[in-house]
# Entry
Amino acid sequence: MWLPPADDVLRVTLLGTGIPNAQVNAFGTSTLIEAGEERILIDCGRGAVIRLSQLGLGVGHVDRIFLSHYHSDHFTGLFDMAMTGTIRQNFGGRNGPLHVLGPPGIERIAEGAWIATAPDRDIRVADNEIDAEHMRIIPHEYAEGVVYDQGGLVIKAIKVDHGDFIDIAYGFRVEYAGRVFVHSHDTRYNENLIAQAHGADVFVHEVAAARQEIQDKMPAIKLVMEHHASPAEVGRVFAQTRPKLALLTHLVLLKPDPVSINEVMQELAAEYDGTVMVAEDLLSIEIGRNISVIPFHRGAKPDGGL
Ligand SMILES: [Zn+2]
Ligand SMILES: [Zn+2]
# Structure
């Protein structure tokens, strides 16, 4: 059963902590932010609808989504949200359009989604099952800086560096009741992120690693590594920002001969002596007087879901 957070608590639930590879335990990136009356999704990767349902939260109860950048693992769940959210049942129940905020390019996604969802929409409208306008994605373009400020919840977009040919990618700084959560999203080692992550209570950072001999043999893996931060680089980011709690997400540890998580942690530890956790899907972090980390299977009712 879903319950709202306490008044002075910023709750962050990591719905998806994966990468484009389809994995049952790590869906595409998606993070639910809850504070007071505010409820925002940042990124909407594969399976976000399933993860919200596991929390006992109908997908229609989230009507505002920020996208960090346009790699597929960060928004393939958007069309599921747009369509499923219109259905007038507990698992859906959105009473208006879906507002999606992204870097330039968001209009194309909104236009494309309106076209691609038309066959489903036509059937359901003819059946008098849904309101057509509830399936519409309203696009909003944002730039670096404050992108949301309502009900005491402030979200700032931080320009990061996700590779030479990706003009725009953002991480986010989320503030509520004096608490601070920072999520790198996809980035290489980045000074702007370090500067804007100061004073973070909780800092979630992506990481990627591959053995040098694999990178030498396989240009495709070398290419992937050039878009992300190595464990040593993430260690240097944490060492310069010193969050109360640091977590790793979006672990790019590709086959063949993948680097183990223990090796990642060892490399990171050479640069940073603080506490580092590995994120998992549905991990809930409550930032209030203290920082509580609640695994899904301890926090939810055993028969939770919708
Ligand atoms: Zn990604
Ligand atoms: Zn990416």
Residues 10-295 form a domain with the Metallo-beta-lactamase; Chain A fold (CATH 3.60.15.10). The chain has a mean pLDDT of 96. DSSP finds ten helices and 15 strands in the chain. The pocket of zinc ion (ligand 2) is lined by residues 69, 71, 162, 186 (CB under 6 Å).
